[in-house]
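Key result, reporting period 2: structure in, sequence out.
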């Protein structure tokens, strides 16, 4: 899969931009605050309909404009599809080949993009919420059903919480129906997350070893659910767990268990690095996590994601920079930003298409 053409209308500091790309490594070079990240962000928006760095869609609209549009031609298996995301004050609209889709959720999982940016350190250093949203975004990219189940889960959770909060005398028949619904959705989400983490672990060890030359890495999924063979066993396990907290839930007037409290942690040489670990270790672990995702896309889903690397080279040592090359020179389309070409390995620069960015103007280099 690769992005052939990108058109931005009133996006961030771009007024009207049209760029053509090859299935190659594309490097955006420019000083600070010129619009490098904005381009990567727009590609992310094209894939996921939202930004990786703000939850306020309207921030994407160029100041003093009424709307923004990101349009892209994406080639996959020799077929080109046109995608469009429009954002204005009223919300957003998405279309595929000029056909508007009723639901934004049905647009997702079509363009596979993986972003690596400095803020990703929050996946390790931030709260469980940061880590859960990482799960949710990444698994949604692979599986559109996950998007639906997650939204159903949140709806049932909300209803259940409202009921606990507002009801003096719980009607057990009704409450048990809600709990059973929640249990089924818990199981689906748990299994998807568990399988995602298992797949990550299948690839991340080798990647980490190849890049750092040492140490072992492991991602651990922390859930209140214990794995069992069958869905039926899982169902009974969860029924027992919810029964066990029933009195407390009634007392505290809130749902106390569920995958909305899940977390995961990363271990290097058996030490949890969420609290320990150097900045460099954090950065490399997250990078390896993302590179492992690429392997999942390629090996398990036969998909080639578009890789977006925002300013990742400035803080890596030379050895790691060199070792990363083999993962990004693997026939993927890659977008890299940097303030300085010297930060990037000569081997990468040699074959790349270079774009210079100055105050929202892009010129193609030789
Ligand atoms: N909605 C908006 N309307 C107009 N300009 C915007 C908007 N949002 C951001 N900008 C401008 O975009 C510029 C920042 O762009 P971007 O984050 O892409 O910079 P960058 O080239 O990646 O810089 P750095 O090297 O510091 O990361 C800033 O000048 C900012 O004022
Ligand atoms: Mg930037």
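The corresponding designed sequence is given below.
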């Amino acid at each position: 899969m690769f992005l052939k053409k990108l058109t931005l209308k009133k996006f961030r500091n771009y007024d009207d931009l049209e760029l053509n790309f090859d299935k190659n490594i594309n490097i955006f070079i420019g000083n600070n605050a010129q619009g490098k990240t904005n381009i990567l962000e727009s590609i992310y928006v094209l894939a996921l309909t939202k930004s990786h760095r703000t939850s306020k869609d309207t921030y994407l609209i160029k100041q003093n404009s009424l709307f923004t549009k990101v349009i892209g031609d994406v080639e996959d298996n020799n077929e080109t599809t046109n995608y469009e995301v429009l954002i204005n004050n009223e919300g957003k609209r998405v279309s595929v080949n000029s056909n508007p889709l009723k639901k934004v959720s049905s647009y997702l999982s079509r363009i596979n993009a993986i972003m690596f940016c400095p803020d990703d350190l929050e996946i390790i250093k931030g709260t469980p919420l940061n880590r859960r949203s990482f799960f949710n975004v990444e698994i949604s990219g692979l599986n559109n059903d996950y998007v639906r189940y997650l939204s159903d889960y949140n709806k049932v959770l909300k209803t259940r919480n409202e009921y606990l909060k507002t009801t003096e005398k719980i009607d057990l028949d009704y409450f048990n129906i809600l709990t059973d619904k929640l249990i089924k959705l818990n199981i689906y989400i748990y299994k998807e997350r568990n399988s995602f983490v298992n797949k990550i672990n299948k690839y991340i060890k080798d990647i980490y070893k190849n890049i750092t030359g040492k140490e072992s890495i492991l991602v651990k999924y922390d859930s209140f659910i214990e794995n069992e063979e069958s869905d039926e066993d899982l169902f009974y396990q969860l029924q027992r767990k919810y029964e066990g907290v029933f009195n407390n839930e009634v007392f505290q007037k809130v749902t106390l268990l569920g995958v909305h409290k899940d977390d995961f942690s990363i271990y290097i040489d058996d030490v949890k690095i969420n609290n320990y670990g150097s900045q460099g270790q954090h950065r490399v672990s997250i990078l390896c996590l993302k590179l492992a995702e690429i392997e999942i896309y390629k090996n398990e889903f036969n998909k080639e994601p578009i890789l977006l690397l925002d300013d990742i080279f400035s803080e890596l040592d030379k050895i790691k920079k060199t070792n990363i090359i083999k993962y990004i020179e693997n026939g993927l389309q890659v977008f890299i930003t940097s303030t300085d070409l010297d930060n990037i390995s000569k081997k990468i620069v040699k074959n790349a298409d270079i774009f210079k960015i100055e105050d929202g103007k892009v010129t193609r280099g030789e």
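The longest strand covers residues 2-11. Residues 12-13, 30, 32-38, 59, 61-63, 311, 337, 339 surround adenosine-5'-triphosphate (ligand 1) (CB under 6 Å). This case is discussed further under Risks and Mitigation.
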